[in-house]
Request: fold
Amino acid sequence: MSSTVPTQSVTDPSVPARPAPQPSARLAAPGRRGPAEPQSRAAQARLALGPLWVLAVAAAALLCCFLLLPFAVLLTTSWTGGEFLTFPPQGFSLRWYQALFADTMWTSSFWMSIGVASVATLVATALGASAALAMARLRSARWSRPLRTLFVLPMAIPLVAYALGLYDVVLRLPALQTSLAPLVLGEAVIAFPVVFVLLSGALARVDPALRSAAQTMGARWPTVVWRVELPLLRGTLAAGALFAFNSAFDEVVLSVFLIPPGQTATFPLQMLNASREAISPMLTAASTLVSFVALAVLGGAGLLNRRKESRPS
Reply:
C-alpha cells in the first residue's frame, strides 16, 4: 500500500528572492488624483497659458462686465415708475411694458420685423445649405477658394455701403420702390454667411464614405442629400437658422434705406426713430424686449448644439 508523502517547497539559496509587490501610489494616498487620471479642461487651459492665465481671466471678467453691466442698467431702468429715465429707478413698475404693448405703432413694428426676418431666414437657410452642400462636392481647388471667399464676403462688406448700393438699385427699378423684397433679400444676403460657415464646418466632419456608399447602392444625389446628409445636419441647420434670424431681426441699416414710404417701420428702426425724439423708459422697455429675443435665440442655438453633442454617434 503506497503512502502519499506531502511535498515541501525547497528554496534555492542561489536564486534571489522576488521582492514583494509594493502598493501603488493611488492606493497609498487615497483621495489624491493619480497621474493617469485625465485633467480637467480648466487645468489644461491653465497649463497651456502658463503665466498668461491670470491675464486671460482678468480679460474675461472685464468683457463680462462690459456686456452685463449695460444690460443690467437697461433692465432696471425699464422697471421705473417715474416719467423719466433715471438710475437707480424710481420704484418698481411694469407700466412702460404695458404702454409698449398697448401702442399699435410698436406692436406693428414688432410683427413687421418678425415677418421680414422669418422670410429672410428661410431664404438665407436654403441658400446657405445649398452652397455648403455644393462646396462639399467641389473637388477643384481652383474654384473652391474663390467661391468660399465670395460666400463669406457679405460679412466683410460695410453695411452702409451695401445699403446705399441696394437703394440705388431700387431707385432705378420702379417696381421695387413699393415692395419689401429688397429689404428681405438684403437681410438674407447678410445672414447667408452665418448659415454657410456653420454647415460647411458640420459637413467637414461627416464621413464621405456615407455618400459614396449611398451612391453605390443606387441612390441619386437628391436622395443622398435628403436621406443621408440632411438628417446628420439637422441640429446645425436649426442653429444656423436661429443665428440668421437673430441677424436679420436686429438689422437697422438696411431698414433705413429700403423701407418703402408709408410702410410700417421695423422694430429696430422704430427704436432708432424714438431715440431721436427722447430717451424714455418706453425705449428701454423696447430694448429689453429685443435683448430677450436675442438671448432666447442664442439659448436655443446652444441647446441644439448641446443635444447634438450628447447624442450617441
Observations:
- The CA atoms of residues 71 and 224 lie 46 Å apart.
